[in-house]
Design goal:
- The chain starts with a helix and ends with a helix.
- The chain folds into 2 domains: about 250 residues, no CATH class; about 90 residues, no CATH class.
- It has a 6-stranded antiparallel sheet with strand order 1-2-3-4-5-6, with no helix packed on it.
- About 60% of the residues lie in helices and about 20% in strands.
- By secondary structure, the protein is α+β, with helices and mostly antiparallel strands.
- It is elongated and about 90 Å long.
């Protein structure tokens, strides 16, 4: 019962109390430090990214205007949101530890302000950042990424995603399945191709051909050296032919699609894409589900990391600000490592993607609760 009561106290922080000058001070410090940290990290990231890709820019004769406007102008919001929750954590650690070192936290608590009341402006700031990150992640940055990824395709990536695929199984429409033993996205040719059609789980026809080739002029597939088996109850008819043109609900672009293509999809496009991939029997559906669930769990982690950051840095320590920052970075790396660890388990198919994304938040929420209990009141 005591644990439930404490959790209710933490939730009640978001209920608006009387507004005070100290709230404006903390909110201004929080958001100011947050945006300063983002700007500083982005400048460093852009410098390192440019030094890594400058040879590609020169080799592909990328225009300076395109580098600045199409790539780096769109790289900045993408990178800022990628680690937005961690920038929040660092910001909280940095300015709160300075307040603790100058005994401002002691003065606030000694004036009769409870620790729970002290957390209120922190959670208001975290709410602003979380809502801002959620909207940008799901609806704004995906459109920005379309331009950035197109630039990368033209001036950075020197070859297709993969020259060939093997053992391709896809459902192109309800009851219709295709199979290719291998596919080359250089010649746009599939080998050992077959189409199976089912009616109420019973095979009604099967086409098998030596290869299938995409005709860019007709925008159709050409099947070569094939035969068709048509099954009607106990009757079976076999037809052979040299070539035939056909339209399928699959295109060469589907084989060139990079795994990070979901970064250019907003929330509604991503949901439709996942539904389509499920219908086609795609094998890497877990990576798309991870992207979908992260768009909610990562902004939410802002609240958890804010709580941990305040509890860690609000106590004045002998090591000063440096000790607080060191402990904070340790939590940052632990969170990232934990998230990567669970994500890899989900991609391998042995872990539920929803649980893989939310497990780090659950674990760190428990850590935050115990740090809150140990924090100086």
């Amino acid at each position: 019962m005591k644990v439930v009561s404490d959790i209710k106290d933490l939730i009640s922080i978001l209920k608006k109390p009387e507004y005070k000058i100290i709230d404006r001070y903390i909110i201004r410090k929080f958001l100011g430090t947050y945006f300063f940290a983002i700007i500083l990290i982005i400048v460093i990231a852009c410098i390192f990214d440019f030094s890594e890709k400058v040879d590609d820019f020169i080799e592909k004769n990328a225009p300076v205007k395109a580098i600045i406007l199409d790539y780096y102008l769109n790289f900045i919001p993408y990178f800022a949101l990628l680690y937005s929750h961690l920038f929040t954590f660092i910001a909280v650690i940095f300015f709160t530890s300075k307040m603790a070192y100058r005994t401002e936290i002691v003065a606030i608590l000694s004036s009769g302000v409870s620790y729970k009341r002290l957390l209120w402006p922190y959670f208001v700031s975290a709410s602003i950042i979380a809502v801002f990150a959620y909207i940008l992640t799901n609806f704004v940055v995906p459109n920005v990424n379309k331009v950035r990824l197109e630039f990368e395709e033209n001036y950075i990536h020197s070859q297709p995603v993969s020259y060939s695929y093997r053992n391709i199984h896809k459902q192109i429409m309800p009851g219709t399945f295709i199979y290719m033993e291998s596919y080359s996205n250089i010649s746009n040719t599939g080998y050992r191709f077959s189409i199976e059609k089912y009616n109420e789980n019973e095979l009604v026809s099967k086409l098998m051909g030596d290869n299938i080739l995409w005709d860019s002029t007709k925008r159709k597939w050409t099947i070569r050296d094939y035969y068709v088996r048509t099954i009607d109850g106990m009757k079976e008819n076999v037809k052979e032919s040299r070539t035939v043109d056909t339209t399928l609900n699959i295109y060469p672009a589907d084989f060139r699609r990079r795994t990070n293509i979901v970064e250019s999809m907003d929330l509604f496009e991503l949901n439709r894409f996942i539904k389509q991939q499920r219908a086609q029997g795609a094998e890497n559906i877990e990576s798309y589900l991870l992207e979908k669930y992260k768009r909610v769990s990562v902004p939410f982690s802002t609240f958890i990391l804010t709580l941990i950051g305040v509890c860690v840095s609000s106590r004045k320590a002998k090591g000063g600000i440096g000790l607080h920052i060191g402990v904070g970075l340790g939590f940052c790396f632990s969170y990232i490592l934990f998230m990567q660890f669970t994500s890899q388990f989900a991609i391998s198919g042995g872990f539920n993607p929803l649980l893989a994304v939310w497990l780090p938040n659950i674990v760190f929420a428990i850590v935050g609760y115990y740090l809150y209990k140990l924090a100086p009141k």
